[in-house]
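FORM 7B: Structural annotation worksheet

SECTION A. Query
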Amino acid sequence: MRFGISTINFGWFADTDLLIEVAMEAEEAGWDGFFLWDHLLIFDSEQIVPFVDPWIALTAIAANTERMRIGTMVTPVPRRRPWKLAREAVTLDHISKGRLTMGVGIGAPPEIEYGKFGEETSAKVRAEKLDEGLEILTGLWSGEPYSHHGKHYQLEEMTFLPKPIQEPRIPIWVGGGYPHKEPFRRAAYYDGVIPVHSAWPEALMPTHLEEILSIVESERGTLEGYDIVVCGETTGNERTSDGSTLEPWMNLGVTWWLEDIHGIRGSLSEMRERIRLGPPEL
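SECTION B. Predicted structure
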């Protein structure tokens, strides 16, 4: 199991200088990855809260770190132009020397992330755009002539260079909300799955993950070489407690534990202290 940080791109962490500092602390403390949420507005739209663009922030983080994987948890592909996202991702992959992992999903909550901007909120349409968007991303990353003629996107034949540093492509982890099944069928055809409970902040449980992995495995045929990503909280200094938290996930083959660092957890100083303590010791 590898250990990373999952943190918000708003509130305290809308300060890019602070994000860079925290990411450097995370790398020094031994964390394996640093991942940013990708939101435009706060869930409670009555609040006015500062935000940072996660892709630009990750570029700065990439330039100030050397070892950790970086990425978004998760980017709503349907509210992006897939070809623009393809260019941005390859550029960040090169800046980071091949350390980018792309987390993707349809985006939530739709009434805020999409509706406030006059965009389509239908889950069906967003899912269609995600599927087409992923086809376009992987097609353009190939470095070969590629065209696309779908329901939502039309691309004449073109070739995008350079290719990503990583082979066969930048890893894609697909997010999805339990108990829905379709996101996990989609995730099976990429490089990893990031399950959450659709009734957030209700927690995902190991029994839920068992169901999810049965869907993924039935589509893929195997879970070998596949990333299974779970978010949660550990103490960093209570080995017995942390072991009890992680054991059921490890037994299910979870490959990445992402430590939740957000305002619900505590103060900024408490969250930074948790990062400095480093990954849980097993």
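SECTION C. Observations
The chain has a mean pLDDT of 96. The CA atoms of residues 128 and 151 lie 8 Å apart.

SECTION D. Sign-off
Analyst initials: ____
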